[in-house]
């Protein structure tokens, strides 16, 4: 519903009587929320606004915001909680849990299929309690608000096959971006007999999600999937043993953070990518023999720690591109910094030349195909909707299934597919109206042309973000300045999590030439790096080898200096 941008019509402050009515409606629709909880959620004082929006599909939706954070939205006289509300009251709705591999599909707008639901023990008719078709539910952490497409008993009767939950709202969509873009908190496990999944499964999937979000490597993510089988006794013992460790790491993070913003971060460094701030500015203040490990703190993720520091007034954050955050302002006059004694750190431990980015973790970029309206007659019977994402392999599988289900493969020549009216209307041009067969490869290629390209971009520790269209590459170009001077310009580094300032310093020290990060002349493109001379050969090695950016996402490397032929 909110995968595509919506249009804001009006925004008004909610009066006291309207707030009271809203609280009453919430309590009536969600009995698990007491009067005290609704009063905390929708206060008498403070900034409570009603925003009228129009979605991409022309639905009129009312969004209720508290302190500019959406807490409920109203559609067809029914209230729906946002993920921000679900994080505050995680047990207000029945709960489903699913596997790590399912979430990228949910982000793309797909519904939760029943085979992807984790069920403890043998399935039975009452495994989901009194759940009815059309009931609201959440998909843990919770990161998805959904609506059941079957009752609990019908799910059992269907042998856990087919669609189970329709996705209404998800972490990372436009409604989430309308708020403060915070990440899911660490939610304590509490017994809840009414939840759609058992307590053990909830504990395990939450632990898995925390591990996978904080992890930056495929191996660690795989370990997260294996942890779905960890029993409660192991989880409890680990939680108990880590209490003191969490407290110690919290204090260490705060100490290094305050030292860094008081003594290291200069005005010229801003805006400063958060990944660079941690590695270049905070890590040097960590005592010998220790290492800053956010996963061992109560925050679990660095973005959540910075959100807390922002709420305490130390810094201000801004999103420079989807999934990439930067520190835009620093308050060195903060009361907590006045008496702080900053330890002396040798200058060489502050790797301004970019050495701190030796452990740079590039984003995971998955190219996908988005279902368009033209393809719905072909794919809707297989449970797909407009906007759903598929890999090319998934699309080929769906086409193959359609052809075999409708007996369209030619009997005499297996390499040909007979075109039924749906396929013919979809892939043939007017001049090909009398054509009755196509080869498998030709059919597949023509259907791909009817789909919208897109990509899922996942930065370490953050949910994948769907971007329609092809991803913009890093652009490297050589321009003439004056009669004999040339400069190399590198654009769009920030979209891949590369700090332009650190990148410029690395180039400057390596090739002994002038290099700087300046604002791009193009609107909303952030910083670009300008280097003296034609340095494409060195920059190519830096991007491909050190930063591990795939070559297909770097444009202009062929403009490097040509070697002169020896006679």
UniProtKB/TrEMBL annotation:
Judging by the UniProt lineage, the source's domain of life is Eukaryota
Annotated SUI1 domain ranges read 474-547
**SUPFAM superfamilies reported for this sequence:** eIF1-like, PUA domain-like, SWIB/MDM2 domain
Q: Which InterPro entries match?
A: EIF2D, eIF2D_N, eIF2D_SUI1, Pre-PUA, PUA-like_sf, PUA_eIF2d-like, SUI1, SUI1_dom_sf
Q: Which Pfam families match?
A: Pre-PUA (PF17832), PUA_elF2D (PF26292), SUI1 (PF01253), SWIB_eIF2D (PF26291), WHD_eIF2D (PF25304)
Q: Which CDD domains match?
A: eIF2D_C, eIF2D_N, PUA_eIF2d-like
Start-end of Acidic residues biased regions? 189-204
Keywords attached to this entry: Cytoplasm
NCBIfam families membership:
unchar_dom_2
Assigned protein family: Belongs to the eIF2D family.
Give the protein's recorded name.
Ligatin
In which organism is this protein found?
Batillaria attramentaria
Q: What is the lineage of its organism?
A: Eukaryota, Metazoa, Spiralia, Lophotrochozoa, Mollusca
